[in-house]
Fold:
Amino acid sequence: MAEEIPGLGTAVDVNRKRAALLIKIISLFAVASISYAYYWWFIAQFRQTTDDAYVTGVLMGIEPQVSGTVVAISAENTDFVKKGQVLVRLDDTDASISLEKAKVELAQSVHNVKSLLDKVAAARSNVSLRDEEMQKAQSDFNRRKALYEQKA
Structure:
């Protein structure tokens, strides 16, 4: 008969309990190892970490073409942006007021130019009228000169 250990039972029972516990521990380590291998193969192998990493990249300063009040920001710090992408939207109130003012000034300039062109046309017709008067006066002068020379 098997030897009995006080408080634990027989030696065979103790060995069975030890073997079952050992199988459970080995199974746990096997499951943990397989889980870590799966994690590393599909996720962790693509990650890099370091304590003193340096990132090389092109950093560009951004300067506005016009000044104004910022209404919206479309990009965050360190975001990748492409040429032509809108980064900041400005309040267009000042620009629309300036546009309307420029339209009014353009309309006034067009009106002034049209007025000046009308004056030029009137001056040209006045010049042609004066040319006709001069030709008539020249003709009268030549006729009277001819009469004077004939002493008529």
Notes: Strands lie at 4-5, 9-10, 70-73, 88-90. The two ends are 182 Å apart (CA to CA). The mean pLDDT is 86.
